């Protein structure tokens, strides 16, 4: 019996090995699903059938069938069919996985074994492709089309670009495919949304129907159908600019010549030309140029200016795509002498030499359309005297000049020159500064690099205005370009931009210019942008008492304020965290904290504020006094008076006997009194008795004796 019991596990293991051996389950079990591909989120049905007769070792005994979806157990129903079949059915109400494996397991005599598997995929029908566009490449005449695929279907999807010849009577916007024509096309590489139809599959100069088809196990989707002639979507090669030159008699005009690409030589083309000044990003576009002409003229160019030219072409039918812009070509037009007047501004003061005037003259460089080329320099000349040519007082390449002239000089003449000549002279008159100032002036930021300056016009009409501005800085120096002239006498606003930076204060002045004088300036200050101060002032303790503390500080330097200081705020707190504060006018540099507690430690700090933020300073620790100065002085005075009085009394007591007798009167010595020497007769006759040890003391006896004697004497 022991040998038989020991062999039973061996037989079970042997049966399982026979079941697992290759071919052991061939035809033994089968798993079937309703559909291997289902819409995502839909139900799935499956069945597992076990033919016990074909499964070695399962001919006898109970067989239990279980399910696993990937690694997740599933519960199905099991029943016995005809012919010894064991069948288990499973229904998944909702499959939310895009891909899963469904396993059928057999449990026999406590051992489980997989006997079948079905793979299930879930997803969506293919999305409709969109944004289909095609371009014909004239180098190989291949038609390259691209599109956007749409949402992911989570299923293997085949995408094909299809094309077919359209009916000759098809409308351009609505193709009618000839059913007899074969459908050709191309298949994109995996993961791409573009492919090229080779030339052999195309019919040039004929309408073709082109679309994209996407197919998976759940359906097919097609893009919108294009009906195009491949030549209408041809992208031409760009032309090449050959030469650009100025027309000799009209120097503001240029002539351009180009050559079309060889691949486009047989086509009728329309072209466009664009050009711009080299440092200007804006282009000027010229349309309607015939490509086969090869040349064109264009006028209105600035003198002495470098331009950048480009050209492109397409078919004259106005269909298809423009070519790329041709490689750029630069050309500089001919120069011409500068034109126009220069804006000039001056200041003058007596020179060191007698009878001389030191003049500081500034001017603005001419605008591009007035310079007519590159300005080489500026010449300032004095007025002509007695038939002599005017003398040159300054010749410079800068836009300012300092020079000395006689005091009686009332004007000078300023001109600019380039390689082509010299401009007409601008007369600069030294007017007296005695006119009326503006009524009001203020400035507001436009952005962090510019300021709007606005004013109220003066009572008398002005001919123009001059604006000056300077950055407030500890470093010496002046901005020579920080001024401008407004020639409109009716203007009440101007935009200043040169040298404006954020977080910096600017002093702005405006001078009204009258016909025969210059008005007194009016001033204002402004920031283009503000932020919190770079740091707050450092507090110093000026004085302190038991209830007050006076603080002082140095104002924040202007270049570190980053805006207008709107206020200072003083904060103080004691050891019990009682915090108090006070707002101080920004024009002040000291403050007295009152109602403090005596002999108490306080921490104090200051905060500087602008309209854009606050900055806290470092903390200052102080301790109030126990007594005020007056109280301390009074205490010392009182103690001094008391000490002085004591000294005075001591001196008086030592020197004055009467004073002594008043405070310490003289007491007679009883031993020297008559009573001390008088002895009554009775006492003389009585013997002197010495008191014993147990008798009362002598003092008591004396007292009694004395009293007795006195009483007797009184009786007598």
Automatic annotation (TrEMBL):
It comes from the Eukaryota. Residues 1-27 form the signal peptide. One of its GO terms (cellular component) is plasma membrane. It is a single-pass type I membrane protein. It holds the Pfam family fn3. The chain crosses the membrane at residues 634-653. Keywords: Disulfide bond, Glycoprotein, Immunoglobulin domain, Membrane, Receptor, Repeat, Signal, Transmembrane, Transmembrane helix. The keyword Transmembrane helix applies. This is CSF3R factor. It comes from Psophia crepitans. The lineage of its organism: Eukaryota, Metazoa, Chordata, Craniata, Vertebrata.
